[in-house]
Amino acid sequence: MNWKFLVMSSVFAGTTVTLGRLNNRFLRNGLTCQNFLARAFVTHLPVSQNIVRRQRHSINTRLFSTTNSTSSTRTDADRLEKQKQKAAKAAAAKERRRKFIGLAKAVDRGQFATTYQPGGPTGDMFEAKSGLPPRKDDFIVLGIESSCDDTGAAVVRSDGVILGEALASQSHIHEEWGGVVPGLAKTAHEEALDRVIQTALDEAGTTLHDVDAIGVTVGPGLEICLRVGAQRACELAQEYNKPFVGIHHLEAHIMMARLENRELEWPFLSLLVSGGHCQILSCHGVGNYSILGGTLDDSLGECFDKTARLLGLPVGGGGGPAVEALAKEGDPTAIPLTIPLLKRKDCDFSYAGLKTNVRRAAEQLAMERGVESALELSRQDKANIAASFQNIAIVHLEQRLERAMTLVEKQDKAIRTLALVGGVAANQELRSRLNVLCEARGWTMVVPPPRLCTDQGAMAAWAAIERLKLGSSDDPSNQEVYARYPFSMA
Ligand code: KG4
Ligand code: ZN
């Protein structure tokens, strides 16, 4: 028994020493014979397998490198070639990005066939193509607007007094579709237009015979909708032999700041935030604008509308007001969201990323709360999302705007007035925060009352008045409409 045990022990001990040389970890751990066997079985096998595998690999490598030197050279050349291609690709992508920087949507850089340039290439060669109102102290203009989902008409006097106005909202039509349906909008414009024009004239106590000119929005906007208003206005101008002005919708938004504040002198800075656009413009005169920054993807209004849809809020006529109302009940710091374009030191905007950011955050919260979707979140959760989105959306505006302000403060004719215009300018939180920002920098902010920030007929009438005062009108017999109608950057 004893000698058997001795033999077994020495075999085990021998194995221990041999294997221990291979892997002295076993000995360092102070293994006993019995548990060494068990451990050796588990540990030793893979270790030795690894050693074998490593050795085989090194032999292969040696073989490969000594007997196959030509293919090794080829591999090196291939690798070098691949690296070169990769570098060239990266350089091309960088160049594309460089070109894209500042190439905001709808900014004319020579790529558009038609641009808005009523003053010609020099910006001051205005032409009265269909005559001007009779020379008298004040003249009155009928304005018509049908670029999107509101049919608007107004009669405005040349001193800026709105004599009569009417607006047919289509919100009840688009509500059930979750956004504007162009075909339905066109039909609704056709049905409402004559009635709206008549109501505005009646309220002003005038008739088509007595108005001195007609202005109508001709772009940018939904083409089939623009056509409804423009066609009617061209017919009326020709039938009643009135001077006619084809209105640029964004210029009309900007001009509302001059209607609000008749002392507002050129040049001034404009922040235009609407359903289709998001731009910072240096405004030098009628038809004379330089765009300092624009959105690279979505507009701010679009982002408000999508957030409203995500949260199941009313979206007919734009979701912005509903998001703003709900945000008042929420905590703007509750949901962490990323400020867009932090690394880009220019004046452009981007809202597509924030839109996705909000959707993902809402989905995540829905998962945490154990509900199917963001639509089923509690009112408080939804309010927190609305408030956090609105806050970051405004922070992004503030950052870009401050950069633009710094730029124009240094110009020869320093600008120190901001016109906040467009549908989103109706947002109270935005108005008060930008007002604080302006005051802190010694700037003045001009913003139309909320109902004149969103689309309506008075904007077309007033923009026409501004053009007519400069001796500028268009020909109603060949007026086109333009879905895209950028300001000329000539
Ligand atoms: O200028 P507008 O009436 O139409 C376009 O020219 O696009 O702007 C409509 C946009 C919509 O996206 C709407 O949701 C947004 O303006 N909006 C608002 C508010 N009122 C309208 N966004 C945020 N807060 C508001 N109070
Ligand atoms: Zn608008």
From TrEMBL:
Cofactor list: a divalent metal cation
GO cellular component: mitochondrion
Location(s), subcellular: Mitochondrion
Keywords linked to the UniProt accession: Acyltransferase, DNA-binding, Endonuclease, Hydrolase, Metal-binding, Mitochondrion, Nuclease, Signal, Transferase, tRNA processing
Pfam family, one: TsaD
InterPro entries cross-referenced by the UniProt entry: Gcp-like_dom, KAE1/TsaD, TsaD
GO terms (BP aspect): tRNA threonylcarbamoyladenosine modification
Signal sequence range: 1-20
Molecular function, one GO term: endonuclease activity
Reaction(s) catalysed by this chain's protein: L-threonylcarbamoyladenylate + adenosine(37) in tRNA = N(6)-L-threonylcarbamoyladenosine(37) in tRNA + AMP + H(+)
UniProt cofactor note: Binds 1 divalent metal cation per subunit.
Domain Gcp-like: 162-462
Role played: Required for the formation of a threonylcarbamoyl group on adenosine at position 37 (t(6)A37) in mitochondrial tRNAs that read codons beginning with adenine. Probably involved in the transfer of the threonylcarbamoyl moiety of threonylcarbamoyl-AMP (TC-AMP) to the N6 group of A37. Involved in mitochondrial genome maintenance.
Recorded family membership: Belongs to the KAE1 / TsaD family.
Quaternary structure and interacting proteins, as annotated: Homodimer.
Name of this protein: DNA-binding/iron metalloprotein/AP endonuclease
